[in-house]
Design brief:
Blueprint lengths: L1 E6 L10 E3 L27 H17 L6 E3 L6 E5 L4 E3 L11 E6 L23
Antiparallel strand pairs: 1-4, 1-6, 2-3, 2-5
Length: 131
Amino acid sequence: MCGVWVALEDVVPGSGELFYYPGSHLLPAVLCSSHGVPKVDSEDGDYSKFGAVFTPAIKKLLADNAYLSPQTFLPRAGDVLIWQENLIHGGSPRKIMDQARMSMVIHAFAEPALVYYDSTGISGKRDVNVG
């Protein structure tokens, strides 16, 4: 999977800007499924197990690889960041609550990739022949 983040407006510090760890995509993958973390349901928004289990696993991986240092992505409108699925990344805490961070995120797959992907790490099943 390849992620594509497109800035639809200038991103300013304090708006929940994206951070990432260059080189972290080369580390062993940390999947929710291998840590017993269910997919977060967008309707109930329950991130409790994610925060209690998955986040500490990522923090341990980063502590064990302390040579990695975070970078902040402060794009101008139209800038694009492309990343490999295992790149450790996230949103910074929002300090300016009335400042938007309008963006578009695309998850792209190439053949023979699965038809869909979710945080459980469970494979999707292709039910349509794309050709």
